[in-house]
Amino acid sequence: MRLANDIIAIPHGHKAVRLRPSLRAAVRLHARHDLRKLARGIGEGHLGMIADIILEGTDQATGTKLINGILMQGARELGALVEPLSDFTFALLGVDRKEAEATAERVEKKPDTSDWIAPHLEQLFEIGTGWLQWSPADTWAATPTEIMIAQRGLIAKPKAVNGVKEDDQAD
């Protein structure tokens, strides 16, 4: 979980459009499409889902230009978007795509039909506004990874100040 992975770049002509996987984008996209279905929608070239992801990840003007470019280029443009949009979808949960795929290959399980994502996103908002005492606006703008790392730092601070050793460092 590294902060450097939070911004996802999508190729657009000779430029790149940066998408930010904020908590607000995660909540909106989950409410609209269910985040578990977005990866499949991206792979299948579902233009409505792809457009919603782009519009949630960047500003309206940039998103509209990118979507218009995709419409002009057609299917040729969609292939280049699959990997970065999949990365963006995983980042909405604070998960690295490659780690998630490796875990999925190791673990054989039944399809998960329960909605664990909405409570997870609510918990992240609770951590941001409660534990971290960020404003709701700052919490909505933060990425899930930023929230989790900030909470980890908040928990580590009293241990460092009081000289408490980690369990694995105990003598």
What does this structure look like?
The chain is mostly helical and 171 residues long. The protein has two domains: 3-106, no CATH class; 117-169, no CATH class. The chain is 64% helix and 6% strand. It contains ten helices and two strands. The protein has a two-stranded antiparallel ribbon with strand order 1-2. A hairpin with a 2-residue loop joins β1 and β2 (15-19). The longest helix is centred in the C-terminal third of the chain and has 19 residues, at 144-162. It starts with 7 loop residues before the first strand and ends in a 9-residue tail after the last helix. The relative contact order is 0.15. The model has no long low-confidence stretch (mean pLDDT 87).
Radius of gyration: 18 Å
Count of helical regions? 10
Shape: globular
H/E element string? EEHHHHHHHHHH
Sheet with most strands: 2 strands, antiparallel
List the uncertain runs: none
- Secondary-structure-based class equals mainly alpha
Strand order of the largest sheet: 1-2
Strand tally: 2
- Number of structural units classed as domains: 2
Q: Compute the average pLDDT.
A: 87
Which percent range fits the helix content? 55-70%
Task: Report how far apart the termini are.
Answer: 29 Å
Strand content: 5-15%
Features:
171 residues; two-stranded antiparallel ribbon
Question: What's this model, at a glance?
Answer:
The chain is mainly alpha-helical and 171 residues long. It is built from 10 helices and 2 strands; from the N terminus they run ββαααααααααα.
